[in-house]
Design brief:
- There is one protein chain.
- By secondary structure, the chain is an alpha+beta fold.
- It folds into two domains: 123 residues, lpxc deacetylase, domain 1 (Ribosomal Protein S5, domain 2, 2-Layer Sandwich), CATH 3.30.230; 155 residues, lpxc deacetylase, domain 1 (2-Layer Sandwich).
- It is built from six helices and 21 strands.
- It has a five-stranded mixed beta sheet. A five-stranded mixed beta sheet has the order 12-13-20-14-15, covered by helices on one side.
- Helix 1 packs across helix 5 and helix 5 packs parallel to helix 6.
- It is globular and about 50 Å long.
- Bound molecules: zinc ion.
- The site of zinc ion has 5 residues, from helix 1 and helix 5.
């Protein structure tokens, strides 16, 4: 676990298309000073408006996670945010010349490789953590997601699809940068061919292709080369989960236990957390008695 804040050693460029818009997008991730957090900047708009990657900026989670402020949006932020949180990068400016983050190959691997190549540096400021004090769980119709007190950030996730290729998959993993690079960042998003056809007909997933998602038809994976892991599906759900919880705005110290959860359900838990401040506090590990005003949310 890193105790000091971290940022990139230099700028990183990523280029691709938005999966929903089909529009080309250029993204430059730049270093930022301590206590800056993660912010998106729309360089295609006048005055370059910025949107912090915080839960209160979330405006939609139905097709992708969308952040918005003063009428300006950035869409499909989940994989780049998962990547920065997974690699323990606390401070960065993400410049974007479109309203949608490029989908790349449907995973966080291209971002993670580019960031690793540029390097990550430690900064002269301590990291504040979001520390869970009491278990909090939400359940609804067989789905559940909860967070329990833990000295580490850990995720235990189960999916259960009525499909022979996916079925029930469970993974339990510590969220730390080496494991994120080795086990999680390359897991791609997935969907079924009939859903994809439906979305295309309705003007969605315009940039979607076999280049940026696992596509399942019947009992077969249509992508050449098949899956990157036999359980790539659960690994991607964990990637999404790391992205969702990164919207706390600081690293989490807690054990997330999820069953059949997704962006929308994870956001309901975040909302419950912010409505019930007795379940958590911010501070440094091992100093849980600190006053709670370390960082205003
Ligand atoms: Zn995803």
């Amino acid at each position: 676990m890193f105790y000091n804040q971290r940022t990139l050693a230099g700028p990183v460029k990523c280029e691709g298309v938005g999966v929903h818009s089909g529009k080309p997008a250029k993204m430059v991730i730049k270093p930022a000073p301590p206590n800056h957090g993660i912010k998106f900047v729309r360089t295609d708009l006048m005055d370059h408006p910025s949107i912090p990657a915080l839960f209160r900026m979330v405006t939609d989670t139905s097709m992708a996670t969308v952040l918005g402020k003063d009428g300006v949006i950035v869409s499909t932020v989940e994989h780049i945010l998962a990547c920065l949180a997974g690699l323990s990068v606390d401070n960065a400016v993400i410049e974007l010349d479109s309203y949608e983050v490029p989908i790349m190959d449907g995973s966080a691997l291209p971002f993670a490789e580019a960031i690793s190549k540029a390097g990550i540096v430690e900064q002269d400021a301590k990291r504040f953590f979001f520390i869970i004090k009491k278990p909090i769980v939400i359940e609804d119709g067989g789905r559940s997601v909860g967070i329990y007190p833990s000295p580490l950030y850990r995720i235990s996730y189960t999916i259960d699809y009525d499909h022979p290729l996916i079925g029930q998959q469970t993974m339990d993993i510590k969220v730390e940068s080496d494991l994120f690079m080795k086990e999680i960042c390359m897991a791609r998003t997935f969907g079924f061919y009939h859903e994809y056809e439906y979305m295309k007909q309705h003007g969605l997933a315009r940039g979607g292709s076999l280049e940026n998602a696992i596509v399942i038809e019947g009992e077969k994976v249509l992508n050449e080369g098949g899956l990157r892991f036999p359980d790539e599906f659960i690994r991607h759900k964990i990637l999404d989960c790391i992205g969702d919880f990164s919207l706390l705005g600081m690293p989490l110290l807690g054990h997330v236990v999820a069953r059949k959860s997704g962006h929308m359900f994870n956001h309901r838990l975040l909302e419950a957390l912010f409505n019930h401040k007795e379940y958590w506090e911010t501070g440094f590990p091992g100093q849980q008695d600190r006053p709670m005003n370390a960082l205003a949310l």
